[in-house]
Write a structure and sequence with these properties.
9 helices, alpha/beta, Cytidine Deaminase, domain 2, globular
């Protein structure tokens, strides 16, 4: 029996059940498993395909807005006039109509990416496009240790797709006390963050990131820091480690960056509450 792919016009299931062979472990384990869907999603602006991302076929309107903002394609949500998600033979297309000046800038960039599971760099034509200038974020208080730990301890309860398949990343928005307010999931960590950003802006508008912090189930790569800074997120907490470039970018942005967030401990790589990079404070 063939396995049918996701159809966004019929609800776009983010997982499917497949027959499997289980070797070892529990005797008599079931012969099927829930597997995360991963489909090509084309970002199409004013009729021109700009990027193809491998993504989970859910929350695609959030994905479209978040991606458009964090990739610098639009500067504000109001420059995305409308969008339409529809199935095509090869996957899913998100058709967007954006402001003329944004589209002119996009065409000048001459980027045409094909991303592997949320990779935002594949196909970038120059080093300048790979590491863009990062904006400063507004000054925000850093979360307390107990707030970070509270959010971390509850994250898995907000990841039903990860619980079902074991194959997805989560990105959560937490208030200043570590209470989780919103979560998005995807097979790609960048995609999950883009979906969270889009969803939060859809719900809260300009005040989306005024209070609280973002928590991601992945490592803190420089792209995650850049995407967060591009919309004014003042604190990013990651379950795994940060890269050196991510730390340097966080310092430039004045962003609080926390990694290795595990039960009972976490590492602060940079504090954004003083408005100064950590390495500058060390020499005061």
């Amino acid at each position: 029996m063939p396995v049918m792919g996701p159809d966004p016009e019929k609800g776009a299931p983010a997982s499917c059940d497949l027959p499997v062979e289980v070797h070892g472990g529990i005797e008599g384990a079931p012969g099927q498993d829930s597997v995360a869907e991963e489909v090509p999603v084309a970002m199409v602006y004013n009729g021109i395909s700009h990027a193809v991302m491998m993504a989970s076929p859910c929350d695609l309107e959030d994905f479209a807005l978040g991606f458009s903002l964090t990739e610098g394609i639009i500067d504000s949500p109001g420059q995305l006039f409308n969008l339409n998600v529809h199935a095509v033979d090869e996957g899913i297309a998100i058709e967007m109509h954006i402001a003329g000046d944004c589209f002119a800038r996009l065409r000048q960039q001459r980027r045409n990416m094909t991303g592997r599971t949320g990779c935002g760099l594949c196909g970038t034509e120059s080093l300048a496009h790979a590491v863009r200038a990062i904006p400063r974020v507004p000054l925000r208080p850093i979360p307390g240790d107990e707030d970070v730990q509270h959010a971390l301890s509850n994250l898995r309860h907000y990841q039903p797709l990860q619980e079902q398949t074991g194959a997805t990343h989560g990105a959560a928005w937490c208030d200043s006390q570590g209470r989780i307010e919103l979560v998005r999931e995807d097979v790609g960590r960048h995609n999950a963050l883009d979906k969270l950003i889009g969803a939060r802006i859809h719900k809260k508008g300009e005040s989306a990131f005024d209070d609280g912090f973002a928590l991601v189930s992945s490592r803190a790569s420089f792209e995650m820091v850049q995407k967060s800074a591009s919309v004014g997120i003042g604190c990013l907490v990651a379950v795994s480690a940060a890269t050196a470039l991510a730390v340097r970018e966080a310092r430039k942005a004045g962003m609080t960056l926390i990694g290795f967030a595990r039960p009972g401990r976490h590492v602060i790589y940079n504090r954004g509450d003083s408005g100064q990079p950590s390495e500058e404070r060390e020499h005061e």
